[in-house]
Protein: LTC4S synthase
Amino acid sequence: MLEQIHLLAAVTILGVLEQAYFFLQVIYARRVFGISPPKISGPPEFERIFRAQVNSSEYFPIFLALLWQAGLFFHQGLAAALGLLYLYARYCYFMGYRASSSERLAPIYFSTGVLWILLAASVLGILHFFLSHYMGLNIL
Structure:
């Protein structure tokens, strides 16, 4: 069983570490710009860092669900590779947004594309499972 999920687990841990890094960047920015919680507004530099972290956190559950479904029902190696691409794109998104709001666009489009591929792999894998398990059809 563990051979079927070890890559997914590794990518999940990397994702959690990336989220922790983003959280720490917000804490650091709060200290630099003197913005105490619960305030979320301040100089544009702070607001971009804060928004980048929040946006990344909002997409993280979607990413995890699709990563695991694609990995379990379609192919673990492909899902893990796509997961690494997604995490890299999210890092580029965060760093780009931190520098300028326009620098976030290419990485967000790329990471969204990766999510769509994970979704397609998930749907295809689950469809294959249902058709093969309940109807005896093998579409792959």
